[in-house]
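Problem: given the chain below (178 residues), write out its structure.
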Amino acid sequence: MPFHQTALTILILCFSTAFSFLWVNSPLAAYNLQLIALLLIFAVIFFRKKRITAFWKTLIGLTAFNIAALLLISQTGNLNSPLFFLIYFFLLGLGFLTTPPATLITALGLVFFFLPFSSAQSDWLKLGSLFLITPLCLILGRQRQEMEKQEKINLALKEKRRLLIKRLAFRKLPASCG
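Solution.
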């Protein structure tokens, strides 16, 4: 992923986390579910457009999931929410779909999002678990990227072999052979 796409991903994911934090701490927090519904409707409409690149579809999907997960978790008890595991899935998906800096900075942003809601020692353990899962997400994401790169190389080699066989098959035989 080019640098400008990585920077844009980091910026938008941090902005969506900050937006969620401001929304949760405002009087509008009573409308969390309505915002989630609007967000999902927007995402579905956006994904139906054919001219949108894969990068933008990924970025909008990650942003929608980030906001929806944070609003749901804050609605159901913040760090004590039974939906807190959604953050782990989000970080795992982020590791697969983006670069390591984007994953690390977003994980740090998520820790800052939940930091004001932590009071007990178990809350600090949950915040620490976000940092512990981040390297795993990075390793799995890097392995996936290497597998995709190797698959592209294999496809290119197959195409070269196919073209070489095709050339050899249609090559004119010398006059002495036929």
